[in-house]
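We treat protein structure as text, and this decision shapes the records that our systems exchange. The tokens are whole numbers drawn from a learned vocabulary of local backbone shapes. Below, we set out a record of this kind in full and without editing:
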Amino acid sequence: MSALIVALPAHPVSGATEFEFALTHDGSAVASHGAAQASVLPAPTRAGSEVVALVPVRMLSWHRVELPKGVSLRSPRLRSVLEGLLEDQLLDEPEALHFALQPEAAADAPLWVATCDRQWLRGALQLLEAAGRPVSRIVPEFAPEGSPALHAIGEPEDASLVLAGADGVALLPLATTALALLPPSLPEDTPCVAEPPVAALAEQVLQHAPILLQPAQRWVQAAQSAWDLAQFDLSSSGRSRALKRMGTVWADMLAAPQWRPARWGAALLVVINLVGLNAWAWRERAALNDKREAMGRALTQTFPNVKLVVDAPAQMEREVAALRQATGATSGRDLEAMLAALAGTLPPQRTPTALDYANGELRTKGISLQPDEIKAATSGLKSRGYAAAQSSDALVLTFEAQP
């Protein structure tokens, strides 16, 4: 996933505000990072790229709620229900807050709800859109998911300790006195990740060396979360979101390193299919040529006077007809053979009053047959290689092939 991740500042923005950012081409490694005004932020140029807004931990509050029975996640009154459920837990008026539900939430189970200042968030998004960097997704800096971990962030003079895991997100000052506020059930081996400026302070407070991680790398990891705070009045249309997601997935398949084996497999499959199709076509052409040569040999061996084979079946038919004419033998197209076949299939005492024979077609008049008799006669003639059809005043007989 190629993305520009923009960390939103924890204060109202203006045209002079500088946004910290991280640019990634594969969704896992940081290609570049820095700070710039919205108008000069780098633009991701790859197909399917997206702009991701990162909401800082201090701007979000997290709440655990359970929806009343009869209220679904698609209910048009979902927001008003959330406002009623959280009214006593919120420090601000519900109308001034933006709400977002956890991904893949179930209506019949407790779920996490994130809230933040709506005007602050909307102002930052509008500024980025006006600068030509419309946001596709909004993700939290830390979310209540995964195994618990401690994160030391900020600068030494304003350092914070964040505890994030499936049980929630807590923001504390990075100080020894704040450790008493951590849950007593927190395992002693809980990993601690620290930004380089506060790594020494984190080691002093936690009494063990933390894992160093640059803020830009942490933002890239946060962008991989399934959370998307662009909900309710900030959500895009279902169609545009689906198209954007398809474009992102397609770009990942074309460029992301983790998709390299799949790309090689797809290319190998195409090559194998092309080779197989060409081999099959070559084999079919060879078999067809062998059949043509066999027919030509049969023609020249049977009729040595034929020196040039152009259309073996047609030439064979002409030669057989000429041979039959020379020896006086009859064929299925002759009048005698057709009369014999007709006599063998017509009901007794059914004699035609008139015969009309021309170009291998025999028309017999004066024969009146019932529908079942016509069916029986047609079936019998077909077994002898003839096609029969009853017209208004005659039974028409034509030769098709030898039985």
In short: DSSP finds nine helices and 17 strands in the chain. The longest helix spans residues 260-302.
